[in-house]
Write a structure and sequence with these properties.
Keywords: DNA-binding, Repeat, Transcription, Transcription regulation. By secondary structure, this protein is α+β, with helices and mostly antiparallel strands. The chain is 53% helix and 11% strand. α9 runs antiparallel to α10, α29 crosses α30 and α42 runs antiparallel to α43. It is globular, with a radius of gyration of 40 Å.
Length: 1321
Amino acid sequence: MPDRDSLQFAILGPLEVTAAGTPVSLGGAQRKVLMTVLLLEAGKAVPIPRLMEVIWGDSPPEGALRTLRTHISELRRVMGDDKPPRMLPRKGAGYLLDVRAEQIDVERARRLLAQGRRAVDDGDPVSAIAPLQEAQSLWRGPPLVDVADHPFAHGYAEALTELQLDVAKTRIAADLSLGRHREVIGDLRMLVARHPHDDGLRRELVVAFYRDGRTEDAARACRDGLEALHELGLDSPMLRRLQEDVLRGAPDLAWAPPRSLGRPAQVAPTGSGGHQLPPDTPEYTGRDTIQARAHAVLTDQVALARGTVTAAFAGKAGAGKTALAVHIAHRIRAGFTDALYVDLRGTSEPLEPTRVLARFVQALGVSRAAVPTDPDDLAEMYRELLATRKVLIILDNAAGEAQLRPLMPTSPGCAVLITSRSRLHGLTVPYWMVDVLIPSDAVELLAKVVGAARIEAEPEAARDIVGLCGYLPLAIQIAGRKLAAHPHWRLARLAGRLANERDRLSWLEVGDLEIRASFSLSYEGRPADEQRAFRLLSLPAVNDFAPWAAAAVLDVDLDEAEDVVDRLADAQLLERRGVDATGTERYRFHDLLRVFARERETGVGTAIGQPASTAPSAHPGSADGERAGDGHDARSPAAAPEGGAAAGGGDGHGALDAAKPDDPPMLSGEHRAALSRLLYAYQVMLREAVDTFSPGRVRTLSADGPDAGFAAQAAARFARADLAEVVRQPLVWFGGERSNLLALVEQAQAAGLDQPTWLLAVEAAEFYAFAAHWSDWARTHVLGLAAARRTGHRLAEAELLTSLGEREIVLTFEEAFWRLDAAGADPDGEPAVAVTQGALERLALATERFARAREIFAGFGAELGEARAVRGLADACRGRGEFAAALAHFETCLGTMRRTGARRLEAETLVALAMTHGDRRELADGITCLTMSLSIARELANLPLEAQAQRRLGDLYRYRERPEQALAAYNESLPLLAELPDPLWEPRVLVRRGDILAQLDDHPAARRSWQQGITLLRQQGSPELAAAEDRLTAPVTTEPTQFTGGRLLGAFEPAYFIARVAASRRSVRLLNTWTDLVAAPHRDAFTDAVLAAIDAGAIVQILLLDPDSPAAAARTADLSHRIDVPAEIRANLLVLDGLRERLTPVLRPRLAVRLYAEQPLTTYHRWDSGALVSSFPVGYSSAAATQHEATISSTLVQFVEQHFERLWSPAGSAALDDYLRVPLQVLRSDADPVDVRAEFVRLDGAVYIASPELAALLRRSGPDGLVAAVAGNGRHALSGIGRGRVVPLRDDVGAGVVATAFTQKYGAARDGLLRLSSVRS
């Protein structure tokens, strides 16, 4: 991407944008019009209606706004405008091009003209020539030639033509002043011919003729001018006087050398120089790294000898920027002859640079009377004074680059220290952001102010004070001075006062120091829209936020929200936290700034909905994680009594569960709306994350009444901003937002926003259950339950009771069976109540909740809700050992789920039913249930559900003494668990797989599996680690029981393998260069076997060699060219692609084909319980080689499985569909992008395409043609080619080679071939 400072824009001729001299392609005509009008109005916001008018005229087409946004996005992309602050931001109801004036040729021309004109006026034409020549060179043709036929451009074009004439006139005036009369006559004649009525130009032509000794031509030029004006009925007294002067030879017309510049005389200083440094701060603390680096820059003697050195600091109010600059200045003062300091008042009423220059020259010894009044003379005096001195200058509290540039010296030996609230991006100097102090330095600063003895006496209170001050140096100094003024106060007293947000800022006042006043300077200097955003964004009780959340609070589009928060961050009113794991920029308030913002909005410093008299309490999801609620690790239950009152025991068993909430506080309409918009934005994002993570959820609750509008608005904003990408990794997104969700649920319930309270709680239960966030699950649901009861929403109450009951079931089985250190095993016929003491109480609580929920659901006729409650009752029966009753309940709820089409609920219930069959030793029925659950999970593409069913299949086999089958199931579940990822169950399954391998006497493999699980448990700090490590202490043997097992076959037997494929229900894998199985005479039998396996629930994975790889050609040579290996593979691929097309879209992912490129090592034909393995013999096909038949648990097969998994990964192979087709996004200048999948070949680095759809688009495209870019996830082999222009393939000699390549790859000729020709972007 181009660097924004390297961009140059030219409109004095054809529109041109360059980056470091390289042209940047903008695209079609519409984008050129858009860029032109933005350049003409650079620095000003151009309203969207105005942009649409200049592009499309009075009648923009339907979808014009969407196309405009696409154009804006593309302009940002080609200009590398992807990081804040943006060059092309959204500003109010329009867009603004924010670039420096020097980057636009017309602005440079104006600046150069002003420079040249000033030199001419000062009598220095020599200095005028260079800038005027440079200005003239900027015209490359008629201005705005690309948009000349657009009405909006006519006025601008005329103005630019006048500017060109003005430059020419000034240049000619400079040349005449220098005596270049003869040289300018030609230019003057041309200009006079173009502008015959411009008597000023005519005068210059007459003077040039006269001074060149051509008196007759001069007189004739006067006559011609007067006659031209006379034809218009005009006269020119000036030309008449000039005519008379020519005829009488007036001496005034003769040339005289230009006068000298008349520079002001050197001013002798009247004093000894400037010594203006403020006093150093005696208690200055911290910033050691910044100090060291800035000191090195400012004392670099080599750099000082070359010119002025500069260091700059930026940071929020109270961060200590000035103190740092002054402290450094005192350390280096001895190396300079003079020191100057000025507060530029950048946050209030910025000082004019000329006023500062006047101060500085007086400080350097010039008397007040000798200070020039002309700004240019003053600047020149300043530079001359610095030329013979080594001056250290502190420019404190700068407003911006324009204020600083006149004050910046250029003389060698000078150094400048700059401070500002915002980072000044226009300055190319070393810059450091001054943030808050680290905790240890903050306590040290407090100790220096208060005294070390008081800090040592109350260290905890000292840490609390600096923490409540947000580690901000100014706030800590104020707190310290208040304590120093009251030596009898205990530190805990001040800490207690600061803990109350309502009065916190009032307590941070002492003498003339006040943190509130410091913040006010930053706040008051911002525009009204930023002030409003600053206030409203402080109201939600979140730790940080993303731009989409800000858009919801402020009720603006995402682009506008991004621009507003970026500007607030630049102004140091918000902090940038960086980009989170989803790729989204995040922002937060400093604690004291948040209190200040809330004061400005509500009059108190607390969040809306929060009592003002108490400080916000820590909650799970903060830095303490789950320990705040559980007292143990977040991922596993422990001895803490979560079912009791502290966790919301409920319904007579827990105070919180049954509590009636207090009446909520009254909120203003704007505050209620802002918080509601945010809550429903989170609900929409959370819903999208849940559906992405675990598809197929059936919901029984939705917003109604007045809240329905907020929900609809949130959904529309989500779709408009295309936020699905943000939750593309749902677990990552939820992990980042978890603490915010809990805080918002608490705030919503306290503020009386009841519907979003329970809707967020119910939606988040999916992730709470998966990730074992037991405390969050309880806390949100207890609050949701209170909100539902407050408004009498019975269905919400039933939903929350059901979820709380499910939590008790999960915790019961966790403690009894699922943890690695649990006493019981699941399933083994022994109920949970016989294993753990607390199980009976938990199950009783769960049963009560399910029964109440069932009663409510039944009363409303909510069948699915009632079915969920019945399923919960079945789980409770199973936990008590009432297996027959559990089976009856499960069958009852399954009937409802099947009747209503609730497929995901059905699959989840089938897993629980399978475990009940396992308890009853009904293995076949359990396997049937899990097979059905797997089929539904795959149909829904629900990875968590598939992983659960697969690992539970392993549990079922394990406890029914089927170790081989258990091992196979665990092996198949582990890739799924790793893909999610599931940090709870992946290590558990790895450890249990090791148990199975040890049972099979394969101890080396067992230890490897245990060690893998232990590594994950150790990374998580899991309390189950000790139980896993105990496995490693058992005695082992170094020899596995079996390497291959089974038998040896003299050659590959297709019929034998095909029969096993047909009987497979879980997994079929094939690894080879090519396979005879899809060629005659085996094709039909193999195809039928694959379809049968897929129908039965198997996943078929086939790895073949890439026919275009060097390895394929090498294998052909190895076979002495008797077999054309690439041709065989291509034939295989076409058959397999056709077989995939026969499958329904739901089943198609179950047959996957990938192509690897590395040298083949082995062949592999695997079915559910075994595999055939062979090596690649030299000189003949692997089908003729000896085949080793082995069980899945054998070391040989496990080794090949690992090899297969490595090749199957995206890094090791490419998908068949990517080999046969390339996904293209076709960009058109006059319409929306179109997605096309096209066949392709690549020859000698060029890409050729066959696509009837693309060919048709090309025929219909305008003169700009089509530009296409490879779409998708970046893994396609062509992803690196960038953008290309789609052009027809010319019918020449090369076309025949391309056509042959398509025939070889696809088995048939292709018509209408195209070429993807690279374009520069």
